[in-house]
Amino acid sequence: MSEPQQKLHATNHYLHYPDEKDIPTYLAYGFRPVFLLLAPYMIITMILWGLVWAGIINLPFMNDTLTWHVYEMIFGILTAGAMAFLTTGIPELFPGMVPFVGKRLKYIMILWIAGRISFWFIDYLGVYIVAALNLAMLLWLIWFAKDAVLDKLQRHASLGYALVAIFVIEVWFFASQAGLASTNGMSILKVALGAIVVLILLALRRVNMEAVNELMEDKGIDDIYVSRPPKTNLAVFAVILFTIVEFLYPQNSALGWLGLATGAAILAITGDYILKDEFILNQPFVLYLASILVMLSAGYALMGWDLLNDKIDAINHFRHFITSGGVGLAYLVVMIIIGWIHTGRHLTSNIYTHLMVGFMILATLMRSLIPFFEEYISELYLWSSIVWTIPFMIYIKVFFSFLLSPRADGIKG
């Protein structure tokens, strides 16, 4: 495709850009302010958690730091990630939709910031104020995704349904925190993690289709990547089943076999990267995307193995293959892909992108394999937290100049 054709193809997504004057570049499209805030927030929260867990510092304004850490890594980061994905992707998926930019985008970002600050000070503000701020953010995301849910062809409705399920789970969590529900809050957060894995698997289908085909077009590879729904649907079903059984019967040996089956179902999705005519497993971005699935698969499989093995009790350590590994990589890789493509640049891999993915995998291994090196547990906790933040430090170095500058191809957004 020639350069003019590429530019014409790209402008199809921006034909309905609002005619609002003096829009700052950092508010010119949904992903920009999210990534500008999310990368530093990831660094701050993870380093604080590592220091708190190691006993080096404490947070005097917070009694339950474990719940704070898990909630922020699940719901706090999710709302930002989902917002970047939806406000960037839905105007492309549904031509005619006005991109969400400018003052409206600023107000929603303020709501997200208020939600984060409020949860830090939940002991002072009370559950109801914190719940109202955080649930309002997720409710707005569901409203924004309504075009996907109401689409007659139901092409992307599953994303909207997944968000509705996550909203119900978050309501349940705050009801538990307020004493209105008897369920343990940490058990609810594990259910939320399962719902988020489902959302990531559904979103990856779209990301793979865009990123891998864009990559092959740039490389002149004459083939088409197709993300096959049956494989993703099987993995989604397995994750849902594992999540339900773990909530109801967390020590049942059947859950061990379900964990192994779930890991296998997720890993099977990587078979989509094996094309009929071309070999693309040597392409870095294919490996980046595949590593998300490998981490998720390893987490479920190792949790299943742990439940079938009486010698160790490491299920929550192995769960970090899912959280720090799979979920963390999903956010990071999508931030990298959008950081290139939606700032008007070609999808590019280099030493920085390699290091970002590599450090996150290394941090996950350090944290998840603690059961085999228990004598170094404090050191591994602390250093894995620090290493996990390095990719976001690199992201700031490489991509912040892109996020703060107009698109390189001159298109609005």
TrEMBL record:
Keyword annotations of the record: Membrane, Transmembrane, Transmembrane helix
Residue ranges crossing the lipid bilayer per the database entry: 34-56, 68-93, 128-145, 157-175, 187-204, 232-249, 255-275, 287-308, 320-340, 352-370, 382-404
Recorded superkingdom: Bacteria
Protein name: Nitrite reductase
Source species of the chain: Sulfurimonas hongkongensis
